[in-house]
Amino acid sequence: QEFDAPILAEKFRKMIENTEVMHNGKPLSVSVSVGVTLINTDDTINSVVDRADHLMYKSKEAGKNRVTAG
Questions:
Q1: Is residue 34 pLDDT above 60, yes or no?
Q2: 67: which strand partners?
């Protein structure tokens, strides 16, 4: 089965990047760094969250406003 989550996460990232948020009458640009992973049969909630969190930080280290899958 194809791993579609990175494609969906990238669409989500682009949607956020292209959305203006008004704050005190001024437009703000918003970005997001995303870590995407699959749940394996031997995973726990903690192992999945830890892996996704690690991938999110890899996105931030690579320049922010990115999707990293693993």
A1: yes
A2: 34
Rounded alpha-carbon distances, angstroms, from residue 9 to 16, 25, 26, 64, 68: 11, 29, 27, 14, 9
Place of tokens 């956020």: 16
Residues with Cβ < 8 Å from 16, sequence gap 6 or more?
Answer: 30, 31, 32
Q: Which amino acid type is present at position 10?
A: E
Average of per-residue pLDDT across 56-68: 96
**Pair of tokens at residue 67:** 């999707």
Label the pairing between strands 67-69 and 20-23. unpaired
Do 35 and 59 contact (CB within 8 A), yes or no? yes
